[in-house]
């Protein structure tokens, strides 16, 4: 799992590529937390355009990011979600908790 960061004025864009599974997310969770702590964004955008597969580990990553951004009184947006990942998010009800844009 690869992650690219781009911080702006109180915004943070994290772009993911690869498989978002147990092995891929393990180190990525910590990198997401560090990126949020460094940028202190009001808006966090997770771009899933490069995600080739996602399981429940992706849900854990989203929930952890949401918790972290809520501590900063900010918001979370997920965009460019591939169809397979979208089915996982919908089955878990994540689409009722966070904003998903395509």
SS summary, helix count = 3
Fourth CATH level, the homologous superfamily: STAS domain
Share of helical residues: 40-55%
SSE series: EEHEHEHE
Shape: globular
Give an overview in words.
The chain has 102 residues and is α/β, with parallel strands linked by helices. It contains three helices and five strands; from the N terminus they run E-E-H-E-H-E-H-E. It has helices at 22-39, 56-71, 83-92, and strands at 2-8, 11-20, 43-54, 75-79, 99-101. A five-stranded mixed beta sheet has the order 1-2-3-4-5. Helix 1 (22-39) runs parallel beside helix 2.
Short description:
The protein has 102 residues and is α/β, with parallel strands linked by helices. It has helices spanning 22-39, 56-71, 83-92; strands at residues 2-8, 11-20, 43-54, 75-79, 99-101.
Features:
5 strands; Transcription Regulator spoIIAA; 102 residues; globular; five-stranded mixed sheet; alpha/beta
Topology overview:
Layout: E1 2-8, E2 11-20, H1 22-39, E3 43-54, H2 56-71, E4 75-79, H3 83-92, E5 99-101
Parallel strand pairs: 2-3, 3-4, 4-5
Antiparallel strand pairs: 1-2
Helix pairs in contact: 1-2
